[in-house]
Each structure stands twice: as C-alpha cells, then as structure tokens.
Amino acid sequence: MTINPGDSPEGIPAATVVIFRRGPDNGPPEVLMTIRSREMVFAGGMAVFPGGRVDPADFDLGAMMGGSLEPDEAAHQIAVVRETLEETGLVIGLSGDIDAEKARAARRYLLETGDLASVLDHFDWSLDLDQLTPFARWFPKNEKLSRVYDTRFYIADLGTGAVEIEADLSENTHLFWSTAQGALDAAERGDIKLIFPTRRNLERLALFDDFGAAKEQADRIPVRTITPYMGEREGKSWLEIGEDLGYPVTGEPLDTVARG
C-alpha cells in the first residue's frame, strides 16, 4: 500500500542532513551546504543542508523495514539517503561494495528511476541507517510561508575530506564545504543567505570541535519538535525558540528574519 501524506495541515514531511567531514590542518569540521535554485518556491536562493520532502516510495520502503525504527522515522531517514545521493552524489546511510565510480553510477541510476529501492537492488547495496543520528525537528506551522515543511534534521560523518560532489543543477546551483562559523560569517558578509532554522542550526553546529561532540549532544538531548513563536524583547518583536533544545541562540529580531 502506498502511503502519501501529501501537503497535509500537519505539514509536508521532509528530511535534511548535516554531513560532516574533517577540516584541514586539524581545524574545525566542515559541513556540506547547497545553494538552492532561485526558481524554487521554498527557500529559493538560500544556503541550506541537503535534503527534501519524503516521497511516497520512501514511506513504502520504510514500511518494509524491520528493526527498531518506526516506519515513519525510517521513511525520513531513507529520504535523507536518497536526497543526498541525488543532490550531491555522496553515498551515506548505505553499505555494500561502494566506491566513487559506483557512487556516480548509482546517482545516474537514481536520477533515471527516481527509486532508491531499485538502486539497492541493482547495486546489491543495503540500507545502513545507523550512520544517521537524529539531531532536530523543525515545524514552523505558525509562520506565513509558501509551504510549511515538518523537517527532521540528521547528522552524519563522512570522515575523509577527499570526496567528489557535484550539484544536480535542478534544485541546487552550487555545493560547498564550510565550517559552521565560516557559513555564519559568509552570511554576515552577504555572500550567502540563510533562513531562520538554518542559521540557528549553524550556530549550534559551531559549538562542536568534531563530529563526536555533535553526536554526543544529539544523543543526550531528545529531539522535540521546534515551532518558532512570536516574542518580545525590549519592545521589539522577535522570532523565538525554546531555551532547552541545545541551541546557543534562541531568537532573532523579526525584522531581520529570512523566511522560506
């Protein structure tokens, strides 16, 4: 049976991933970001992490999995695996005989079929979702956005810095590696643009000296749905989140907030 939540009042189910790699000269880790095409309805022209909406086929594949994951959670993690391969050419959350050449071939095959299950069968790969760690969940249902996504965030460690990436040029125009603080600095200079959740997550990611520290915090702080709300500080309207969610910055003046 195909499960298709569609654009429900509960929000469009989506998933995104923060992919870590080691920084040069033992410096801070770098994370992968993508610049969305300006033609995209949601977050056009913005710098975001790889990801997208959860497709019906992701729910189908998630429903077939056994193990400890609930089918809905499995579907979101499967969407991360699929979207990352499609958007960037990187293989995460999979195991088998995998190298750079096979990854390129798998991406082409996925773009042709649009179906991750077919990729798994064709290349004799299997899902390895233990590579993904739940990090956050954002659902801005109170905001006036063109589309409201209920997005689950994950983190994953690529390890090596020597990897090949290439934008898909349909949804994304550019891929780049940056430290979290470097991305925040680029936004301050006006080199990139960040929506509210991305900025808050980069501030949180800037706390960590390596992937292990990020994973330790993610494992320690239970994921709770974050729904930004209106607040007031010193007579000005602010967009706020809770104080106990692991984020060092919990609000921003409303007149500076970039939305999707």
From TrEMBL:
PANTHER family per the UniProt record, alphabetical: ACYL-COENZYME A DIPHOSPHATASE NUDT19, TESTOSTERONE-REGULATED PROTEIN RP2
Q: Does the keyword ATP-binding apply?
A: no
- What this protein is called in its record is NUDIX domain-containing protein
What keyword terms does UniProt attach to this protein? Answer: Hydrolase, Magnesium, Manganese, Metal-binding
- Any one Pfam family match given in the protein's UniProt record, by short name: NUDIX
The answer to keyword Magnesium applying to this record is yes
A molecular function annotated in GO for this UniProt entry is: metal ion binding
Needed cofactors, names only, are: Mg(2+); Mn(2+)
